[in-house]
Amino acid sequence: MEKLSSLPAGTLPSEVQPALGPDATALGQIFWYTLEGRNPETGEPAGGWDPQELRTIQDYYVGYALATAKGVAEVAAIGGFIKEYQVDIDPVAMREYNVDIAKKSNLDVGARTIEFNRAEYLVRGLGYIKSIEDLEKAVVAVNDNTPIRVKDVAKVHFGPSTRRGGLDKGGAEATGAVVVSRFGANPLQVIKNVKEKIAELSPGLPSKVLPDGTVSKVTIVPFYDRSGLIQETLGTLEEALEHEILISIIVVIVLMMNIRASIIISSLLPVGVLMTFIVMRYFEVDANVVALSGIAIAIGVMVDVGVVFVENIVRHLEMEENHGIRGKRLLTVIYEASVEVASAIMTALATTIVSFLPVFAMQAQEGKLFKPLAFTKTFALLSSLFFGIIVVPALAHVVFSIRFDKEKSKKIWALVVAGLGLTFLIIYGSIPAIALILFGVNNFFEEKWPEKFREWVTRINTAIILLTLVYFLNGAWMPLGAQNSFIVNYLFVIVLVVIILGALLAIVHFYPVLLRWCLTHKWQFFLLPIFILLFGITSWQGFDKIFGFIANGSEVIGLNLRQTDSWQSLVEKFPGAGKEFMPPLDEGSYLLMPTTMSHSGIEENIDVIRKLDAYVAQIPEIESVVGKWGRVNSALDPAPISMFENTINYKPEYMLDENGHRLRFKGDKSGSYILKDG
Fold this sequence. Notes:
Strand content: 15-25%
Largest sheet: 9 strands, antiparallel
Helix content: 40-55%
Radius of gyration: 36 Å
Shape: elongated
Number of strands: 15
């Protein structure tokens, strides 16, 4: 601003008035809305308000109110008509009176100060126009002591200001605005503050009674609300993490067949994720959809840290000389087992972290998009390393120190667990409560089993835990879709888990045989990784780019392989990844941005966008469509009038709650929904 203010006169055009822009970026447009006349009882559109009235309400009431919400940088209005005084000059009368209209009739003029009775007073001349009559009576010239007024040489009336942007909703003129959040503000909290402010000012919005007796009240109607995207993103991440944690626990329990070890490993995941969020908060890493996916990617490595530590501890404890050890001896064994693999784990995690260094070097859009992912994955790995080195050995010492040597204490604990399950079953009636009851009953009757079948008690406990975990996994996943029953999905998940874990157990069982064959037939085995490597490079770079030298060599001897059907087919199937590095994002809405000819006028653009919105609104899957032509009243939007931005909202595939989770409804045999009131 200081530099612009110091420029010599005439450097900038006379119409240009430099001003500070908002403390925001164009990505801060988090909430769009329109002002509409609606029936306050039914919420149905009622109309009755012209665009000039709605724009006035927006500029002088709604805009100022929403701008006071915490975190809002600006509320940029668009659409409607700005009311202004318009003077239509009569050139014949101007020539007759020899008048040149000046532009100083509406100025606030200062006349310095005067001193009266030893006090200084400021003298001001106010020239504010309050009505058309005030402007008509303004003197523009004096001829022979006769004042010439504006109404003598022109006609004065109200009219709309020239527009450089507008809104169209479903083919009809609309008035609204966009709320822009401050740079670095939490969009979700800002939207919450805006909604609270809307709820506060909505009762004071004007209303009128239409000729047919319908009451029409000005209502703020959102058509783009980023909080939905944020909640769905968080819900998706929550489900993904829940799936990964449950699956990891299931795999660990089956492969290790040790409930205590599984508890230790499973505790690493949620605590490691929480530690990652804490570090993200202190390093000011935004929790966007890509950043949160870094945590999901790191889950597998985080599990590996716990598995390596705990498995080595269990291996040492199962040695014959360490059976039944306690106290300092147990602590020493756990320490030695942890130290034995700590350096290897640190090396493995270091290589993973170093492999992400190229991501930190990304610039422009790719850097802004993927740097948070690299940060969050690095934070997750460091959190798991910290937890694995410090917490896992200590937790292992606590867990493996718990002993139920006496039959009486075993029965007491079994009864306590069964009692808790019965209590939860009466209060909540949930499946986990039944699992607790079965768990307690199974342990209570352990001594009734023959000695050679005592190991089946542990297997039954493991099966109960697995079925309970699959129950939670099925509730969050529903792989066959919400249209199928819970039982069908549950059975499908059980079959899927049995097949996958059966294959893993088969690999573990036959691993010595497989390893012996691979070592004996090294080159035959290497054909597989070589094929995978070539397949990956070909998919990335494209078939013609990788194997083009073969076609070039064939042309030397007169063969044109590029024209063969086989070559063309491979080129079509493996075109390469290209240079586009932005992943698609399905947020339930679509931004259509067509343009007209750069010289097209306002009326042409309004007609085009009206027809476009009307046609799009006829698509059954479309819930609403609002088109913007030109620019909003903001420095963040430099769009010309020939540029359109049509915000298209789809009807959701599933009904979602406020956290982005799918809702399910009970139905009867006829397929009708069962309501709460019957």
